[in-house]
Amino acid sequence: MSRVIPIVADTASPSKQPSPGMTLLEALPPLSLYVHVPWCVRKCPYCDFNSHQAGESVPEDRYLAALAADLEQALPRIWGRQVHTVFIGGGTPSLLSEGAVDRLLAMLRSYLSLWPDAEITLEANPGTAEAGRFLAYAASGVNRISLGIQSFNDKHLAALGRIHDARQARDAIGMAQRAVARVNLDLMFALPGQTASECEEDVRSALAFGTEHLSLYQLTLEPNTVFAKYPPALPDDDAAAQMQDLVEALAGQAGLERYEVSAYARRGARARHNVNYWEFGDYLGIGPGAHGKLSFPDRVERDARVRNPESWMQAAVQRDGSHITDARVLAPSDMPFEFMLNALRLRQGVPSSLYTERTGEPLATLTRALRRAHDRGLFSADPTRLQASEQGWRFLNELQALFL
Ligand SMILES: C[S@@+](CC[C@H](N)C(=O)[O-])C[C@H]1O[C@@H](n2cnc3c(N)ncnc32)[C@H](O)[C@@H]1O
Ligand code: SF4
């Protein structure tokens, strides 16, 4: 999935169930669907996503049968609700054949009530891009493609272990733009040995395609990756912070506003699927390792799927719920952190009223943390919004931790 994974607070405490029948939420939030495709041509050394090197081929038939079984079992939990956005993420969904994506979208349409103008995003890797494939995906209903470009510099792409070079990245952008109106480009910065001017060149190259949306991530060394075991020399914190400022300034000059920690968009081009995560909307996650968050009138629940692709495929078709792990009801005490962890990633934050709308908890439950955040200058002075101040935006982790 674009690095924009739903952010789930790691609360190990046992959750309290609300009293049965108690109504907490006046209305249910918008509903999104996330579909996880867990295979890649090969594993990148920096990546901690639930992605696995595909063998000879992707087991498309078994995967689609397991997805259908996963979705069917979830249907009673979303009965009667419309789905606003779909995100087919990975891994590398563009490893799926045109026919498989067509069957997948037909299956979703037959089971779900999709909004007529639902945003349907598919993540693609330039190394797997073929002109015909993107056009066929679009004909099946995909209307947004998110491309993992990472860099336009062959030296850096090689250091990142990518399967594509800069020319293939450029070709893939052209193909995606011919296929769909909405294209996102993922880039990473603060790469091994990268200079500020190389970072600038990457961002300028991406902007030159006139794209409506960029996701710009600082490379992080994630536990249990090859880079964590054999760390490459990365730009130091000051250099990385300078690159972050540079990236924001360049995007701003091109008319792309930094609306979230890593997301930049033209007016009207924000990723609706991701914004729904950050606004604490609902999402059903299907496929191996997918997370979900669903609201009911009296409670908010989270769950996850078995991570290993083979185990998930076997469990899902048993139709006995064994493909689900970690199902839990959020306790009232979970809500401040769960909500703020997401909402504060948005530069403009959210209206204060959204807290009660989405959690069922009174705003007063935030008072103590808000006071501390104000005292430290980390929170906006506007009482109608839950929003980081300039200072809070720079020290977001510290601000979010106040709501724990
Ligand atoms: C699931 S991947 C994208 C799709 C496709 N698999 C690809 O790599 O082209 C999501 C994005 O997360 C970002 N990402 C992955 N690992 C990262 C890391 N360790 N640090 C920063 N960004 C990372 C990359 O920009 C990547 O495009
Ligand atoms: S192609 Fe994307 S999902 Fe797959 S290993 Fe590389 S970064 Fe991770």
Tell me about this structure.
The protein is α/β, with parallel strands linked by helices. It folds into 2 domains: 31-276, TIM Barrel (Alpha-Beta Barrel); 333-404, Arc Repressor Mutant, subunit A, CATH 1.10.10. The protein is 36% helix and 22% strand. The protein has 15 helices and 16 strands. It has helices at 60-74, 98-111, 131-140, 154-159, 166-179, 196-208, 226-229, 237-253, 272-278, 309-316, 335-343, 353-359, 367-375, 390-394, 396-401; strands at 31-37, 39-40, 52-53, 82-90, 113-124, 144-150, 182-189, 213-218, 257-260, 263-265, 282-286, 291-296, 299-305, 324-329, 350-351, 385-386. The strands form 4 sheets. The chain has a 9-stranded mixed β-sheet, sandwiched between helices. A 3-stranded antiparallel β-sheet has the order 12-13-14, with no helix packed on it. Strands 2-3 form a two-stranded parallel ribbon. Helix 1 (60-74) crosses helix 10 (309-316), helix 2 (98-111) packs parallel to helix 3 (131-140) and helix 3 runs parallel beside helix 5. The longest helix is centred in the middle third of the chain and has 17 residues, at 237-253. It is globular and about 55 Å long. The two termini are 26 Å apart. It binds S-adenosylmethionine (SAM) and iron/sulfur cluster (SF4). S-adenosylmethionine is lined by residues 1-3, 40, 46-47, 49, 90, 92, 123, 125, 148, 150, 186, 188, 217, 219-220, 222. Iron/sulfur cluster (SF4) binds at residues 40, 43-44, 47, 49, 51, 90-92, 125, 148.
